[in-house]
Write a structure and sequence with these properties.
Elements lengths: L9 H10 L6 H27 L1 H87 L9 H7 L1
Helix pairs in contact: 2-3
């Protein structure tokens, strides 16, 4: 048994502090109470009408679920679009920075030389594979591969 200790409810302690005349939040609590009672006066008849007619309540709940799911889907879409745009911008500006760095380190003559080398190397590869294709067509007797519409598409044009 503890003498002199009083066990009080913390909720009543806070309520008495907030509602006391020396509380700095008392004017704000009055405004909050006013607006909540104002809102309650307008929403209570609507909620009563919806809860008394189950058909309306079902439709209202369905509409609420649809609206919330569309909002959630919109948030998901916006997040995906944000990350896609961010990745696109990083790739674009990173590529631009890499080209600028390449041009800075190699100089204009070096860039032209590199581009000429790449164009000739790619041209040789293209020519090699084009010759292989022509050789394959000759070996097959100019037969089109199965499922190919190349001959039909060219004849229309």
């Amino acid at each position: 048994m503890h003498i002199g200790l009083q066990h009080t409810n913390p909720l009543t302690d806070w309520a008495s502090y907030l509602l006391s005349s020396s509380s700095p939040v008392r004017p704000y609590l009055g405004q909050i109470f006013y607006y909540s009672s104002y809102l309650r006066a307008y929403t209570t008849p609507i909620l009563n009408a919806v809860t008394q007619k189950p058909d309306l309540a079902t439709i209202a709940l369905l509409l609420l679920i649809i609206i919330l799911s569309l909002k959630l889907l919109n948030m998901l879409w916006q997040a995906v679009i944000f990350w896609v745009r961010l990745a696109y911008r990083i790739v674009f500006w990173g590529g631009l920075a890499a080209i600028a760095l390449w041009m800075w380190t190699r100089g204009l003559d070096g860039v032209v030389e590199d581009l000429g080398y790449w164009a000739s190397a790619w041209g040789e590869e293209y020519k090699y594979w084009k010759d292989r294709e022509v050789g394959g067509r000759i070996a097959r007797g100019n037969q089109q591969p199965y499922g190919s519409n190349m001959g039909k598409a060219r004849s229309r044009w």
